[in-house]
Design goal:
The complex is a heterodimer.
Chain A: E1 4-5, E2 10-14, E3 19-25, E4 32-38, E5 45-51, E6 56-59, E7 62-67, E8 72-77, E9 86-94, E10 97-100, E11 104-109
Parallel strand pairs in A: 2-11
Antiparallel strand pairs in A: 1-3, 3-8, 4-5, 4-9, 6-7, 7-8, 9-10, 9-11
Chain B: E1 5-7, E2 10-13, E3 19-24, E4 31-38, E5 42-50, E6 53-56, E7 65-71, E8 74-79, E9 88-95, E10 103-104, E11 108-112
Parallel strand pairs in B: 2-11
Antiparallel strand pairs in B: 1-3, 3-8, 4-5, 4-9, 5-6, 7-8, 9-10, 9-11
The chains are: A mainly beta, B mainly beta.
Chain lengths: 110, 113
């Protein structure tokens, strides 16, 4: 049972444009959400997080939006850069339970 | 700090053999996590330790998998006997607390023939 879903396995965006990565979840008890970025042959690295009491968190070019009524999370990258090309995982936490999505591979085209 | 250290980085073994994966968390981190990454299921949490005590092992696939954390600086994930379907990348991560940022190791790529 996939409680966190990333329905787009891949996404291609032109350099300088906005990248929007989406994540849907099913458990309304999730109280903390995170985005991780992963390059090939490396472990995931933390990117940005958001608590369920907020609907937006911004860090430089990265903004995470949370829509609790729709159980939807999105990561916006503006402007996109070639170095952003990686696999992005969303994750959700409730209690001692951690769930990751299957990832979206982002390619930023120069 | 060197970050989370995992060994070996790659492991190729035959079905039925015992496999032991090792992890050294970041010093001072109280929480340690073992994950498995596959194409089909993405990143799955296998087990989570807090202060060396297993808190949640509900993600461990079956009895063939076991994990230990004998002290704050070392953990092992053992598969005995291994099967081809265990082939995956296994990540270890640590954090100061369960909701703090998790820092991942480079992973161990396991291939069971």
């Amino acid at each position: 049972d996939q409680q966190v879903k990333q329905n787009s396995p891949s996404l291609s965006v032109q350099e300088g444009r906005i990248s929007i990565l989406n994540c849907d979840y099913t458990n309304s008890m999730f109280d903390y959400f995170l985005w991780y970025k992963k390059y090939p042959a490396e472990g995931p690295t933390f990117l940005i997080s958001i608590s369920s009491i907020k609907d937006k968190n911004e860090d430089g070019r990265f903004t995470v939006f949370l829509n609790k009524s729709a159980k939807h999370l999105s990561l916006h990258i503006v402007p996109s850069q070639p170095g952003d090309s990686a696999v992005y995982f969303c994750a959700a936490i409730t209690g001692n339970q951690f769930y990751f999505g299957t990832g979206t591979s982002l390619t930023v085209i120069p | 700090d060197a970050g989370v250290i995992q060994s070996p980085r790659h492991e190729v073994t035959e079905m039925g053999q015992e496999v032991t994966l090792r992890c050294k968390p970041i010093s001072g981190h109280n929480s340690l996590f073992w994950y498995r990454q596959t194409m089909m299921r993405g990143l799955e949490l296998l087990i989570y330790f807090n202060n060396n005590v297993p808190i949640d092992d509900s993600g461990m696939p079956e009895d063939r998998f076991s994990a230990k954390m004998p002290n704050a600086s070392f953990s092992t994930l053992k598969i005995q006997p291994s099967e081809p379907r265990d082939s995956a990348v296994y990540f270890c991560a640590s954090s100061r607390d369960r909701k703090e940022t998790q820092y991942f190791g480079p992973g161990t790529r396991l291939l069971v023939l």
